[in-house]
Write a structure and sequence with these properties.
alpha/beta, globular
């Protein structure tokens, strides 16, 4: 199968953070796999969070993170529009998630993703058809129910 995988902000942050140790290595391997397979998806919200976090924690890294974000535009990021916000509210109410986490799930659905790569939810959790994959459990590219 070639189901798309939506990548949450934390995966990009771990890939960038040299102090993250084994989490950095796992994040880098996942991202490399998604680039190679063409299955990676993202939203503008994720790109904004990625930039804001990196530039706040590592101000000198603004230029390199901007270049990485420019590269990620090839993943055709999901725009947060009215339909995504409506879906996020439904997701928030059903699963009792924060609004920001609900936007991530809604964007994953808008991008027709079967998987959400994140450490912010329970591994294997099914969020109305979007399955949570924890980036630090298992091997990159090995996805459940595929």
């Amino acid at each position: 199968m070639t189901a798309p995988v939506f990548v949450d902000t934390n995966v990009f942050l771990y890939a960038f953070d040299a102090a993250a140790g084994s989490k950095q290595q796992a994040a880098i391997l996942w991202l490399a796999h998604l680039w190679q397979s063409g299955r990676g998806r993202v939203s503008y919200q994720v790109l904004q969070e990625y930039y804001a976090n990196v530039s706040q924690k590592w101000p000198a890294a603004r230029t390199p993170v901007r270049e990485k974000i420019r590269e990620l535009l090839a993943w055709q990021p999901v725009a947060i529009d009215g339909a995504v916000i409506e879906l996020a509210w439904k997701t928030q109410d059903r699963f009792r998630l924060s609004f920001w986490d609900s936007l991530i799930v809604a964007a994953a659905k808008a991008a027709s993703c079967r998987y959400l790569l994140t450490e912010d939810f329970q591994p294997g959790q099914d969020l109305e058809g979007v399955l949570v994959v924890h980036p630090f459990h298992g091997r990159p590219g090995v996805l459940p129910r595929e």
